[in-house]
Write a structure and sequence with these properties.
This protein is an alpha/beta fold. It is built from 15 helices and 17 strands. The strands form five sheets. The chain has a six-stranded mixed beta sheet with strand order 1-2-6-3-7-16, with helices on one face. The protein has a four-stranded antiparallel beta sheet with strand order 11-13-9-14, with helices on one face. A three-stranded antiparallel beta sheet has the order 4-5-17. It is globular and about 85 Å long.
Length: 472
């Protein structure tokens, strides 16, 4: 049985159009696999053992379930289908855990654990992040199997259940199972397209590190009439410390946080990229960020500093008193080329040089995610772009990395493989918020795109890096 690419695409579209995708996604959304809530631990196991293990076994995969090496966190699933050692091995990753349901905040009677189809939207927790996205990818694999009778490549599936808590244990798990997970390519989906109507490929992610700045001036608040002009106000002092980190348009002032110039390949890849969150997305502030860069270059090629929260005194019940302390919770998103181990030491040196030795700097409890990048000229990136253009008739946006963060360093560096991500969501999907949704047109087109990619992996002409003894 050989079949054809067109036949595989027709099977995928028929599955979607006849309601197969929505039925499968509804069943998966109904599993309340919120990894941030310890009482949901049984649902984390059920998502793998009851939903995906039998599905994969039926399609010729050997499947193993594994406890997390970090106690108290969600398990892992590895599925393997080995066809021919001379063909590429492809690792496909997804996460089946979701954030808290926020049940009472959903609109119009919706529930996070019940899929609602309204116009061109699938509503439900995990539809965009990430159940809907890996459901699309595995449905595409199914379409290829049905049409060709085989994949034409070796497939490894990894699903984790702790990404929404920072992927605890993922690095150690992949270290222990490195040989099992070794592949020529990671092909996965998460995050948003650069704009809803344009297919997107990204080869890595920005890194992220969260930290706090705290200034404790004294014990207790003191009357502003009696002491105003005599006691330093920690809110004012900390505001000036923040202003020393970034200027009034958000341009970073810490020298070590400013990347080297963008490479020509990155600039060329971003030359026609237009960031667009869709009709529900916010308008871009054109005069914010690094003045010499385009909006796309600012988010995909540069670092960004954010103040996530700032507190001094009691904002809910302000009183006429000078507060004793102030705290700012901050974040740096950073690209390859920024030394991750020097981010906080560099900030400490910068604050000290500007006279803010009294400000305390402390890392947040969330783990740092490291930056990764696949050059847009990489053969796998170009191969993926050609495949997608062959399916959609239009070239995709080819980004060196996503603006957000994922545990991609585990695949790109720890295991060691090129990484290709093809997102099936968009920036205004309400990810991590009430009314999370997946756009129906993107999901349908994404299913076709992934079917084409998986079909082409079974054809000649793929960059067979590992078997040639080099990285593509």
């Amino acid at each position: 049985m050989n079949g054809s690419r067109a036949g595989a695409l027709a099977r995928a579209m028929d599955y979607f159009d006849r309601g197969g995708f929505v039925a499968d996604l509804a069943r998966r959304v109904a599993i309340p696999s919120a990894s941030q809530e310890p009482e949901r631990a049984p649902a984390l196991v059920a998502y793998l053992a009851e939903e995906w293990q039998p599905w994969l076994v039926e399609r010729g995969y050997s499947v193993t379930l594994h406890d997390n090496p970090v106690a108290g966190y969600g398990p892992f699933l590895i599925g393997r289908r080995l066809e021919d050692a001379a063909r590429p091995t492809v690792l496909t990753y997804g996460h089946g855990d979701v954030i808290r349901g926020q049940d009472e905040q959903w609109s119009n009677g919706r529930s996070p654990w019940r899929l609602s189809v309204e116009g061109e939207r699938f509503y439900g927790r995990g539809t965009a992040d990430n159940k809907g996205q890996h459901s699309i990818n595995l449905a595409a694999i199914d379409a290829v199997l049905d049409e060709r009778g085989r994949l034409g490549f070796n497939s490894t599936i990894l699903i984790e259940m702790g990404e929404e808590t920072g992927s605890p244990g993922l690095a150690e798990f992949c270290r222990r199972h490195r040989e099992t997970l070794a592949a020529d390519l990671l092909l996965a989906s998460d995050g948003p397209r650069i704009e809803p109507a344009r297919a997107t490929v990204f080869g890595g992610t920005r890194g992220t590190i969260n930290f706090s700045l705290t200034l404790d001036c004294r014990e207790g608040a003191h009357h502003s009439g009696n002491w105003g002009g005599l006691l330093a106000n920690p809110g004012i002092v900390l505001a000036h410390a923040l202003a020393a980190i970034a200027d009034r348009r958000g341009q970073i002032a810490v020298p070590e946080w400013r990347p080297a110039s963008l490479s020509n390949s990155v600039r060329m890849a971003l030359a026609d990229a237009q960031v667009d969150g869709g009709a529900d997305g916010p308008a871009i502030d054109r005069d914010w960020g690094e003045a010499s860069l385009t909006p796309a270059e600012r988010v995909f090629g540069w670092n960004s500093f954010e103040v996530l929260a700032f507190r001094t005194g009691n904002p809910e019940r302000p009183v006429n008193a000078i507060p004793p302390s102030a705290v700012a919770h901050c974040q740096l998103r950073f690209v390859v080329g920024t030394d991750p181990d020097d981010i906080l030491p560099a900030l400490r040196r910068h604050l000290d040089r500007h006279g803010f030795r009294q400000v305390t700097l402390a890392p947040a409890k969330e783990p740092m995610m490291r930056a990764t990048r696949l050059d847009p000229d990489n053969p796998w990136a170009r191969w993926a772009a050609r495949s997608i253009a062959g399916t959609t008739g239009q070239p995709p946006a080819l980004l060196p990395n996503l603006g957000g963060s994922l545990p991609n360093d585990v695949f790109a560096e720890l295991i060691g493989m090129p990484t290709i991500w093809v997102p099936h969501s968009y920036a205004a999907c309400s990810q991590h918020a009430p009314d999370e949704h997946l756009l129906v047109p993107i999901a349908r087109e994404g299913l076709g795109i992934m079917t084409g990619l998986f079909w082409d992996l079974g054809e000649a002409g793929t960059p067979l890096a590992r078997h040639e003894g080099e990285t593509p």
